[in-house]
Amino acid sequence: MSYIEDRDYEVIIDDIYLDKSKEKQTPYACFRLENAEHGRLFYNMYLTKGTAKQVAKTMGEFGYSVDDVKKPDFWKTVIPELIGQKAYITTALNEYNGKTSVKVAWLNGMPRAKRAPVEGIENEIASIFDDLESGVPF
User: Fold this and answer.
1) pLDDT one-digit tens code per residue, 88-99
2) Tens-digit pLDDT profile for residues 81-129
3) Alpha-carbon distance 32 to 88, whole Å?
4) Which neighbouring-strand residues pair with 108?
5) Beta strand 86-96 pairing with 39-46
6) CA 54, CA 112: separation in Å to the nearest integer?
7) Which of 39, 74, 94, 130 could form a disulfide with 103 if both were Cys (CB 3.0 to 4.6 A apart)?
């Protein structure tokens, strides 16, 4: 079964390597992502001043800080530690040279995708209805 656009999928980071784009020589981290049911997708996370905030936020979802991503050693030694970790992706349609395919629009770490439940919130929510009369017609 293949990926469908505008959907979220849980994936495993199967491989990551650093490279530069051929034309503009823009550095990027290439993620090879795997889902047992849907197969393999690649995601290039471009590493520029313009993407720095989003990249730092994404790395934060994997447990790393802004101070971590500022260190050259992070990109050499820590990035490979992401291999084997779970992540979430959101897909989108990609049109290139007259062909349409599904691409990764967003890569997210697990904390962003899976929030811990707020304990005890049920009582707080139920209490907002305390002032309603049981016979209120709707």
Assistant:
1) 999 999 888 999
2) 899 999 999 999 988 899 988 999 999 887 544 445 566 767 776 777 7
3) 13
4) 88
5) unpaired
6) 13
7) 94
